[in-house]
Automatic annotation (TrEMBL):
PROSITE patterns: UPF0033 (PS01148). Residues 7-31 form the UPF0033 domain. This is UPF0033 domain-containing protein. InterPro entries: TusA-like, TusA-like_sf. PANTHER family: SULFUR CARRIER PROTEIN YEDF-RELATED (PTHR33279:SF6). The lineage of its organism: Bacteria, Bacillati, Bacillota, Bacilli, Bacillales. Gene3D superfamilies: TusA-like domain. Belongs to the sulfur carrier protein TusA family. CDD domains: SirA_YedF_YeeD.
Length: 75
């Protein structure tokens, strides 16, 4: 998967992963992919819902040693 930008949101609690994701998405062009690393368990539901409501494509989530990695394609 071609990632255009990576966001480190580890250690941040809700709503900060969403706030940082929104800011990072504003820097991307349509069709580009943002990879987000977060430790907040709630980020999974939050980012999925946020991507859908914002017209973005939630591509994938993966957990690795307590770190959640998300890939979202800008709509």
């Amino acid at each position: 998967m071609n990632v255009n930008k990576t966001l480190d949101a580890k250690g941040l609690a809700c709503p900060m992963p969403i706030v940082k994701t929104k800011k990072a998405m504003n820097e991307l062009a349509s069709g580009e992919v943002l990879e987000i690393h977060a430790t907040d368990k709630g980020a999974k539901n939050d980012l999925t819902a946020w991507a859908k409501s914002g017209g973005h494509e939630f591509l994938k989530v993966q957990e690795d040693n307590g770190i959640f990695k998300f890939w979202i394609k800008k709509g």
